[in-house]
Amino acid sequence: MNCCGQHKRRDGSTEPASDRPERKILPDDPCVFCAYKHFHTARRLVQEYGYTAENRGDAVGELVLGAWHLWKTENIRLAEKVRDIRHKIEHRRESEVDWGPATDEFDLLIKAEASKK
Description:
The chain starts with about 30 loop residues before the first helix and ends with a helix. The protein is globular and about 40 Å long. The longest helix has 19 residues, at about 55-70. The protein is mainly α. The protein is built from 4 helices and no strands. Helix 2 (about 55-70) packs antiparallel against helix 3. About 60% of the residues lie in helices and about 0% in strands.
């Protein structure tokens, strides 16, 4: 899935992402599409490869980025759910992680955002 394409360049312009000479999306730019990608990357990492040391760190990093993309939006509750999943993984409480509620909430959010375009 492509990003929303609405991120501004660091110089403030809004030219399409495909016209940019280099990557300009900042890690905390509000974007539910970016948050969705980071969340599901983390989910897939742990589902396919488990909670090995290296993989755990990669999943945690993806969850941090996903939460950053959400926290400046009206979706702060979802950002908190993503953060809570990250905390459980960091504290080695992976058996307590339930990806389902956040996955369902992301699905509804993405459907709503996609219908606006």
